[in-house]
Amino acid sequence: MIERVRAVLFTADDTMLVIRRTRPGTPEYWVLPGGGVEPGDESREAALHREIHEEIAGKADIVRLLHTTETDDERQLFYLARILTWSFDDRTGPEFRAEGRGEYALEEVPLTLEGLDGIDLKPEEIAHVLRGAIGGGSLGVAASL
């Protein structure tokens, strides 16, 4: 089974970092930073730190596991994490060099219901989980700062 890790990266300004994906022939959508767990990764959290570094040259403190989705062949683990530093210009992930992959644009989105409603966050299940957590006050971001 393939495992992927992704992060809801919240900032000190109550925003979250998301990647806007633009691909030929596909409506734009947004994803959370992250990617596949590789055999050399010591843990899922280590994989997430590596992915955050590759995708946004960032450093983050992982707060907690927020949600898990699973299909027959893939498991995705979504973590809540406080982003400490980032530099989209210094990203190093291999996907940024591959032709035909489209564009990856880093954006800050308010960590509010309105902010989430303004983007098409994929997968839809994590967008639903975030809406419920924000609306119910159970995201715990303020306590994590």
Commentary on this structure:
With 145 residues, this protein is an alpha+beta fold. It has four helices and seven strands. It has helices at residues 44-56, 113-117, 124-136, 141-144; strands at 2-10, 15-23, 26-31, 34-36, 59-70, 74-85, 103-110. Strands 1, 2, 3, 4, 5, 6 and 7 form a seven-stranded mixed β-sheet that branches. The protein is globular. The protein starts with a strand and ends with a helix. The mean pLDDT is 90.
Number of helices: 4
Reading the helices and strands in chain order gives EEEEHEEEHHH
Helix share of residues?
10-25%
Shape: globular
Question: What average pLDDT do the residues reach?
Answer: 90
What are its keywords?
alpha+beta, 145 residues, 4 helices, 7-stranded mixed sheet
Helix and strand arrangement:
Elements: E1 2-10, E2 15-23, E3 26-31, E4 34-36, H1 44-56, E5 59-70, E6 74-85, E7 103-110, H2 113-117, H3 124-136, H4 141-144
Parallel strand pairs: 1-6
Antiparallel strand pairs: 1-2, 1-4, 2-3, 2-7, 5-6
